[in-house]
Specification:
Structural class: alpha+beta
Strand content: 25-35%
Radius of gyration: 48 Å
Oligomer: single chain
Distance between the termini: 122 Å
Largest sheet: 6 strands, antiparallel
Strand order of the largest sheet: 11-12-21-20-17-18
Number of strands: 21
């Protein structure tokens, strides 16, 4: 094409071709046409060349980039209203059609400006001569393409596609996503509804055949999920929603349907169900453990309902396991009279909670009691218990701390040993002090630890506390601070009162706010 751009002088002095009676007819015709249609009347310069086009008529659906529509376009100058248009392929197309009289139909690109933003758009344009001017119809292709892209994106994200079936003409159409759902090559074409059940899983095939038959013969709508077997034998859960258009006699003539792949949702549903089953199984196991622990409580570690009298001593017990609903943890005690009339007093702490800790606790408790009954020296008993833990096989190995003491009423003497445990607290004449601790590390840590015994004489009116570390531990506080707090609290309490441990424990530990089991023996002479 040649360069047809008008000069500034031509644009300034170029009148439009005069209107004739036919122009009014063209306006009426253009106004009645569907779609974006305009009539352009050329403006010519002194030499007869076209310098501009006037929008002499516009259909109701005509539009431009800045939002003007229909009658708002009439009377506008193309050059003035759309700067730069005279340098485009579209402008040259207008001039060529006007000069040759040959209609043009095709796609053109045009850079539009709206609200200061420029964008290049593609139009499908048809240009034809009419009454000395041009009738132009157009459609913006990129708008349609964007809509198609959005629709395709929505279908892809929703794993959803559509189908149409003409029951009279026999044609059937699938959208692109349906081929993806069925794992089918688009080159093979859609699957007829009558053959759809052949792609269903064996168990779902009879139900799908019945649903399709009801749809095609009686127009019964379908909204069900079926298992579809793909060519690679993968199974997908596909929801099928379909309805019909019926003729005057009520017979189906067209089917509109949707296919939606619900496999991911079904997988998530199965995972949720499996999780619920796992939670129920865990709850059932926990309930069984709680029941077993309650039975073991009565058998292994009965908490006395009243104070015990042993070898001239009064013994009170407090036991608070941390595990909610499970009355037995890793802390334990023994307070029994031996065959020789002496009293055995023990407090221990097995690392951990639950039935594994209970099993270790039971080993230690009964083994220690059995060796004490035979008269074995206390350091030797601890050494044997250490060997028992070190050589315990299996994946549930534990360590433990403990205090073991034997009281001889004839001599008012208490002999005691420790294995990594906080020392006893002696209260005499209102003053509290911790007994000097003999050598002894926790059980189960090394093969050959050294254990030593220590003795103390108990006087009338003395009070002795054996306890586990749950009584003195607090977050962010050292063990020494906890022991000092215990001594101060004990000195402020009347240990001669009935069941003194109730007030003592509540003063040291808030209800339901302890991080470890608590076991305390209060021994009074």
């Amino acid at each position: 094409m040649t360069d047809h751009r008008p000069t500034a002088a031509q644009r300034d002095h170029g009148p439009s071709d005069e209107e004739g009676p036919q122009t009014e007819v063209v306006r009426e015709v253009v106004a009645a046409m569907l779609g974006p249609v305009v009539f352009l009347r050329p403006r010519r310069g002194p030499d007869g060349s076209v310098t501009d086009f006037e929008l002499a008529a516009a259909g109701s659906e005509a539009f431009d980039a800045v939002g003007r529509r229909g009658p708002e376009l009439v009377g506008l100058s193309l050059v003035d209203s759309y700067p730069g248009i005279d340098a485009t392929d579209l402008w040259r197309t207008y001039l060529d059609v006007l000069a040759s009289g040959t209609p043009y139909e095709g796609a053109v690109e045009y850079e539009e400006s709206a609200a200061g933003f420029r964008q290049r758009s593609r139009y499908r344009v048809r240009v034809a001569c009419c009454q000395g001017g041009l009738v132009v119809s157009y459609a913006r292709l990129d708008s349609d393409e964007r809509e198609q892209h959005r629709l395709a994106l929505m279908q892809s994200l929703g794993r959803m596609g559509w189908t149409d079936r003409d029951l009279v003409g026999g044609s059937i159409v699938w959208s692109e996503e349906v081929y993806s759902i069925f794992g089918r090559d688009p080159g093979q074409g859609p699957v007829p509804l009558e053959e759809l059940a052949a792609h269903a899983d064996d168990e779902d095939r009879p139900v799908m055949e019945q649903a399709v038959r009801g749809l095609l013969e009686a127009g019964e709508p379908v909204d069900r999920t079926f298992r579809i077997r793909l060519p690679d034998q993968q199974v997908r859960h596909v929801r099928i929603v379909a309805e019909t258009d019926n003729d005057a006699l009520g017979r189906p003539v067209r089917v509109h349907g949707l296919f939606q792949d619900l496999s991911a949702a079904k997988h998530a549903e199965r995972q949720l169900l499996e999780h619920k089953r796992s939670v129920l199984a865990q709850q059932s196991q926990l309930a069984a453990e709680r029941d077993l622990a309650a039975r073991l409580q009565d058998t292994l570690l009965p908490v006395p309902q009243q104070q015990l009298a042993l070898a001239g001593l009064t013994v009170d017990v407090a036991y608070l396991p941390v595990q909610e609903g499970l009355r037995l943890g890793g802390d334990w005690y023994s307070a029994v009279e031996l065959p020789d009339g002496n009293a055995l007093l023990v407090v221990g702490d097995v690392a951990g909670h639950g039935l594994d800790a209970v099993a270790t606790m039971a080993q230690l408790r009964f083994t220690a009691k059995g060796m004490a009954i035979t008269g074995s020296p206390l350091p030797e008993i601890l050494a044997n218990l250490n060997t028992l833990l070190v050589h315990t096989s299996g994946r549930h190995s534990h360590t433990a701390t403990m205090i073991m003491a034997v009281y001889e009423p004839a001599a008012s003497r208490l002999t005691w040993v420790r294995a990594g445990h906080p020392p006893p607290l002696l209260v005499r004449d209102g003053h509290a002090r911790f007994l000097p601790a003999p050598a002894g590390m926790l059980l189960g840590a090394v093969h050959d630890p050294r254990f030593e015994a220590s003795t103390v004489e108990l006087c009338p009116g003395d009070h002795l506390l054996l306890y586990t570390d749950g009584l003195i531990e607090r977050p962010g506080e050292s063990i020494d601070q906890g022991m000092a707090r215990l001594a101060e609290t004990v000195q402020a309490k009347d240990l001669a009162a009935p069941r003194p441990l109730n007030g003592l424990v509540s003063a040291l530990v808030a209800p339901h706010d302890h991080a470890d089991d608590i076991c305390v023996l209060h021994i009074a002479r």
